C-alpha cells in the first residue's frame, strides 16, 4: 500500500525516536514501558525499595483476605443474633466473593487510567468502610449489602498484586516462581482468617471479627501511604507532569482504549474464550472445581470437626494451619518441579528451549493429590479415626489444589500474547470466583443429604474426571495453541494489520496518540 510523503516522514520520525534509548525512557511514540536502564524503572530500584512496595501490596491483600474468611468463624454468632438459618448466614461469606468476581473485569482499566497506587489507596479504605458497616449492622440485610460491596470495591487489591509484582521483579523465565509466590501471598490471609477468627469470636463475639479486620486494614494503609508508583506507563505520565511536558505518547493499552475496546478485552473476549477455546475451557473448569471445593472447606471443616470430634471454635481455627502448610508446600514443590522439568525438557529440545507444556508438570502431579485427598477426607472424617487424619487430608488437598493453580495459570499466562493472556486470565479468575461463591451455600445441604462421606466422594469422582486435563494439554497443547484464534499466530497477524493501518494513517495517528496517553479515549 502506498503512503503519502507526509505519512512516510511521520513514520521515519517515529522510528528514529523509538531507537533513541533516552527518548524511550521518557516514553515517546508507542512505548508502553520504561527503558530497562532507566533508574525510575521499578526493576532497577534498590532492593529495600522493591521489598517495601512488595510488602505493602502483600499487606493490603492480607488485610482483605483475612476479612473475607475470618467471618466464617462467627457464622453461628450471626445466626443466633439475627435468627437466620445457617445457609442465610453463610451468604455473608459468599457475597464478598461474588463482589470480587467483578474485579478482574474492571481493575485493569482503573489501573491503566490512574496507575496502581490510587487504586490501592482507594480500594482498601472502601473495603474498610463496608467492613465497619458490617460490624455495626442491626439486621442481616445490612450485613449482606456491606459484605458484597466490601468485596466489590476491595477486589482490585487482589488483582493488583499480580501487576505490582510484575512491575518490580524481573520475571523472564520465572513465571512459575512468580505465580508460586503470588499464590502464597494471596492465600496467607485466607488461611489465617479462620485461625485468628476462632479465638476472636470465642472471646469477643462475631462483631469483633470486623473490628480486628479494620485494625489490620488501618495498619496496612499506614504502611502503604508512602508506596511508590510501580506502573511504568503511569511513571512516564508523572514524569511528564513534573517536567511540565505534555502527556507522553504511549501505545494503546493492552486492556483497551475505548469503552468498547475495554469491554471487548475483559468482558466479551473472556466469554468467547470460555465457550470456544479448548485450553481456556479446560483450565477454567479444573480451577473452578478446585476453588469451589476449597472454599467449601471454610464452611464444612468447622461443621465436621465440631460435630464429629467435638472441636471448639478455637481448635477449628488451629486446624487451618494444615491449609497454610499445604499452600507453602505447593509453592516450594512447584518451583522445584519447574526447575527440574525445564532442564529435562530443554536438554531434549533441538533449540534448548522446551515446549511451554513443561509448565504443566506440577498440575499433572498435583491432580493426584486433589483426587486422593478428597477420598481420604471423605472416609476418615469419622469418630473411629483420629482427628488428625482428615486434617492432614486437608493439607494434601490444598497442596494439590495450589499446585494445579500455579501450574495452570503459569501455562495460561504464556500460552497467548498479551491481549489473549489478559482475556484468558480474566476468564479463569471470574469462573473460579463464581463457583467459589456458590459452593459454600450448598455444601451443608450436600453433607446432610448425602452424608459427609458421599458428599466428598462425589467431589472425588469429579476430580477423577478432571485428572486427565493437564495430561491432555501436555500432549495436545502445542496443536491447540497453534490453531487458537487467540494464539501467537493469530495475534501476530492482528498486530501486523494494526501496524499497517497505523503507517497508512501517518500524522493522523500521531495526533490521535495524544488521546491514548492515559490508556483510554475520551469516550
Task: Please characterize this protein's 3D structure.
Residues about 1-30 and about 495-523 have low confidence and may be disordered. The protein has 21 helices and no strands. The protein has 2 domains: about 45-230, Growth Hormone, Chain: A (Up-down Bundle), CATH 1.20.1250.20; about 255-500, Growth Hormone, Chain: A (Up-down Bundle). It has helices spanning about 5-20, 20-25, 45-70, 75-80, 85-100, 105-115, 115-135, 140-170, 175-205, 205-225, 230-240, 260-275, 280-310, 315-320, 320-345, 360-380, 390-415, 420-465, 470-485, 490-505, 505-515. Helix 9 (about 175-205) packs across helix 10. The chain is globular, with a radius of gyration of 24 Å. It is about 80% helix and about 0% strand. With about 525 residues, the protein is mostly helical. It is a multi-pass membrane protein. Keywords: Membrane, Transmembrane, Transmembrane helix. Pfam families: MFS_1. It comes from Heterodermia speciosa. It is found in: Membrane.
Question: In short, what is this structure?
Answer:
The chain has about 525 residues and is mainly α. It has helices at about 5-20, 20-25, 45-70, 75-80, 85-100, 105-115, 115-135, 140-170, 175-205, 205-225, 230-240, 260-275, 280-310, 315-320, 320-345, 360-380, 390-415, 420-465, 470-485, 490-505, 505-515.
